[in-house]
Amino acid sequence: MVCERKRRWPFYLLCALGALVVAAFWAYSPALPPDLLIARYTNEESKFIDVAGARAHVRDQGNPDGIPLVLIHGAGGSLHVWEGWVHELGSKVRLISMDLPGHGLTGAWPRDEYTVEAYADFVEALADALHLDRFVLAGHSLGGAVTWTLAARRPDRVSQIILIDSAGESRDAPWPTRLARLPIVGDIGIYFKPERWVQRKLSEAYADPAMVTTERVKRTAELQRFPGNREAALLRARTQGPLDARPLRRLTVPTLILWGAQDRWVPVADALQFKNDIKTVTLKIFEKLGHDPMEEDPVATAAAVTAFLKPIPASFPPRADPVQVGLRARRTTCRDLVAECTGPDGH
Length: 347
Fold this sequence. Notes:
Mean pLDDT: 84
Structural class: alpha/beta
Largest sheet: 8 strands, mixed
CATH superfamily: Alpha/Beta hydrolase fold, catalytic domain
Low-confidence stretches: 16-26, 315-347
Shape: globular
CATH topology: Rossmann fold
Number of helices: 14
Strand content: 5-15%
CATH class: Alpha Beta
Strand order of the largest sheet: 1-2-4-3-5-6-7-8
Radius of gyration: 22 Å
């Protein structure tokens, strides 16, 4: 019997290896063709412009004479999360949304940096490309951190900010981020099929289960498979250091904080901490909403935005011509490269 078992172990090993290979082929999901995703997830307002070297997916819509409101989505998101606000605010406000580098239809960034600080550079370059001297910033989750980082850096350009369930002072990284930081595990894991993971994340993000629609899960999962996005997410997980909250305490711009009380990722206590840290704050908590309140209740959250926004004293230009946008963005890229080589003090 012992000899027979010894003779069989290669067979068992071969079966186990075969099962692993089959599972790997089942789980593996290559990048999707960009043309397919662009056709599927753009509309007549979508434009692709050169911003700091990235081919950025941007929508500039709403009232061209209204206050410019620049919208920054969170990690793993896309400009589609703002569609409810576009419908509710479009008659009053000029709404500018974009897919950040490594997200949506923008894809990889030649700069190959995906930290909060790098994203703040990108958003300012976009404002340059669209000839925005002064503007309002609204950011959700990771986009909230980008918002307050840029506002603290450039209060001369950012007139007001809106923080929506925003990232703030760093806490321990969640386990998916810790897993992504592991050698080999993270490199292989990003190529597994994302649908089930996306469905779980969206179920945690929304207080209302009805928000987790087949269409939303499919769009989020497929946009993760846009070429370069998963590699960018891995690099972001491995390079984003702890957020420095000291700039928050230097903020002087009027700030609106919108928060879902049912947020399972960023607790309401963080909203109260923001209120304590920032000088001029209006706080609005929505008791029945989760981590994405602007999607779950665009009517109520947009009403809070309308009540908060104040006219920008300085005049601002009409919407830029797309051709001129591309030329301006390329000049911005050159300035960025010079600054990167010389450093902030010119040396």
